[in-house]
Each structure stands twice: as structure tokens, then as C-alpha cells.
Inverse folding.
């Protein structure tokens, strides 16, 4: 395609569309119909240029023009509380449910890895010696040592806020870096399981594994589930780069990316709950069985939320994507 000839042939249409957009709402019926037709044609022109002779300046101009026209044609919609309720009752749980084939295996493999690391460290004193000096390890694992005082070393509210921030950042990182073929996500998962395995191994080696699990399980069940969901979603996003399925790679990534953004918001709320448990329940004076029971109840509530509400919404066709009216226009693909 000769770009100069193409621009000469269609510049008048683009200028006319720009003129109509500048007039805003002062359009008659015929002019409104003309604007819609010009918007559709300009979107097609943009697609042709992007696939045939991508010119940065022209692409930027037409992209802006198409975006302005789309906003005028479809109108803008303000978010409302109804949107938030819909997201929490259908969109987010549906997205988590639909990605279960990624995050459930991720959770199982990661948990097994942490258990194996813990067993290896706990049954091999030479490995423990390589981690730290005997005096340091005793200080960490003794009654009232670092593992136990960690959860009560700061005021509960500030500790919960710090934990929530750190975990939310880790989950968001998994979601964002998933686009890099999922490789960074595997690294993040391994580091998390390594830290957990080291704690299991050292406390098991000191004969105090029950104490460690009593401190970790109340908040760790829900917290790790959220991390596994984020990691599984990130891996799914990375696989989309490799195999976009029946749609174009751009469209598939856009859909998965939008769902991942929603997932990040939802998981931040889940991690907020686990942060509250870690800040107020884990270091509390409640019996161990009561603290663990609270953690199990929170985990079961989340799983029921995903598999009941999310399963119902997914079977009804909800993908966790934003409403169609809020999506970017899908431009036609040149043959």
C-alpha cells in the first residue's frame, strides 16, 4: 500500500471527523449519523495502516481520533456502587474460578515444594549449619525467639498494614510480570516457598514445628491462596503470549490483561483480610486451636465464595472482563 496515496485519499474524511468531534453535542441527526460512519471508516483505516505500513505519526493521530470518536459515539459512564457490587459478587469470583486450572496446580506444586525443602532442612543438620551459626539458629527457634516474636514485634494495626502492603505488591507483581512468559512468576513463587520451607525445616529441627504451624496457619492459608491465585493468573497470562487461542494475540492479551487488573483489585481485598488476621489473630492470646480455626474458616469462606458465586457467574458467561461498553474498540483485522 502506498502510504502517500492512502493519506491523500482519506485525509478529508479524517479532517471532517475531527471537525464533527470539535462541535461536540451541537450536531443534527444527519451529522450524528455521518460521525458514526466516519468513526467506523477511520477505525478501519487505522487497522490497515498498523498492519501494512505502520507510520508512527499517522498511527498516533488516527489512534487519538478513533478514541475521541468512540467516546463520543458510545458516551462515558461513571462508575457506581452497583459496579463495585457486581465486581465483588460476579466479576472477581468468576475470574478466579475460571483460572482455577492454573492456580490450583500452582498451589499444590508450591506447597509440595515447601514441604520438601522443610523436610530436607529439618532432617539434615549440615544444611541447617550452612544456613546459620548454631547460636543464631537457637535464637530464632527457641521459645520467645525471633520466629515467635515476629508477629508481635509491632503494634497490630501498623503490622497488619505493612503485611497487607507487602503481600499486595507481591501479588500485583505476579500478575504484571506474567506477560514475560511467566518466568518471573516462577522465581517469585520459588522464593516464597523457599522462605516457608526454611522456617518449617528450622523449627522442625528444633522440635517446635507445631508452634510454627500454629503461628503460620491462621493467616497463611488465605494469604498463600491469594498468592497462588495471582501466580496462576500470571502464568496463564504468560501462556497467552505463547498460545493466544482462536483470537489474535493482541485481543487475547487485552482480555487476559483486563481480567488480571480486576484480579489485582480483588486479591488486594483478600490480602487485606489475611493481613488483619496476621496482625490481630496470629499474635493474640487465643488458644492455638482457636487461631487455626479462624484461619480455616476464612479459607473455606473464600473457597466457597469462588466455587459457589464464581462458578455460578462463570457458567452464566461472566469472564471477569470489564463490561463491553468499557472496553477499547476492537479494530478489524486486515486480511
Amino acid at each position: 500500500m502506498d502510504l502517500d496515496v492512502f493519506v491523500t485519499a482519506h485525509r478529508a474524511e479524517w479532517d471532517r471527523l475531527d471537525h464533527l468531534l470539535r462541535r461536540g453535542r451541537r450536531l443534527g441527526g444527519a451529522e450524528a449519523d455521518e460521525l458514526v460512519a466516519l468513526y467506523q471508516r477511520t477505525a478501519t483505516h487505522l487497522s490497515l495502516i498498523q498492519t501494512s505500513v505502520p507510520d508512527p505519526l499517522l498511527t498516533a493521530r488516527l489512534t487519538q481520533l478513533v478514541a475521541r470518536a468512540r467516546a463520543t459515539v458510545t458516551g462515558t459512564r461513571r462508575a457506581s456502587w452497583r459496579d463495585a457490587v457486581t465486581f465483588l459478587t460476579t466479576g472477581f469470583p468468576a475470574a478466579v474460578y475460571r483460572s482455577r486450572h492454573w492456580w490450583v496446580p500452582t498451589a499444590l506444586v508450591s506447597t509440595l515444594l515447601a514441604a520438601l525443602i522443610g523436610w530436607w532442612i529439618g532432617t539434615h543438620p549440615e544444611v541447617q549449619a550452612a544456613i546459620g551459626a548454631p547460636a543464631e539458629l537457637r535464637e530464632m527457634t527457641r521459645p520467645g525467639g525471633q520466629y515467635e516474636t515476629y508477629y508481635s514485634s509491632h503494634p497490630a494495626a501498623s503490622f497488619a498494614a505493612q503485611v497487607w502492603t507487602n503481600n499486595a505488591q507481591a501479588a500485583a507483581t505476579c500478575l504484571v510480570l506474567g506477560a514475560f512468559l511467566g518466568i518471573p512468576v516462577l522465581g517469585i513463587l520459588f522464593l516464597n516457598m523457599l522462605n516457608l520451607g526454611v522456617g518449617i525445616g528450622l523449627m522442625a529441627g528444633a522440635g517446635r514445628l507445631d508452634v510454627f504451624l500454629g503461628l503460620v496457619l491462621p493467616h497463611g492459608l488465605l494469604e498463600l491462596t491469594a498468592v497462588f491465585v495471582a501466580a496462576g493468573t500470571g502464568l496463564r497470562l504468560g501462556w497467552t503470549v505463547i498460545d493466544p487461542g482462536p483470537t489474535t494475540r493482541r485481543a487475547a492479551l487485552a482480555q487476559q490483561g483486563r481480567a488480571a487488573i480486576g484480579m489485582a483489585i480483588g486479591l488486594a481485598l483478600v490480602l487485606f483480610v489475611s493481613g488483619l488476621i496476621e496482625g490481630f489473630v496470629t499474635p493474640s492470646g487465643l488458644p492455638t486451636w482457636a487461631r487455626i480455626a479462624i484461619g480455616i474458616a476464612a479459607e473455606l469462606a473464600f473457597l466457597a465464595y469462588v466455587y459457589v458465586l464464581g462458578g455460578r457467574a462463570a457458567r452464566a458467561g461472566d469472564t471477569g472482563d470489564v463490561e463491553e461498553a468499557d472496553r477499547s474498540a476492537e479494530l478489524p483485522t486486515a486480511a
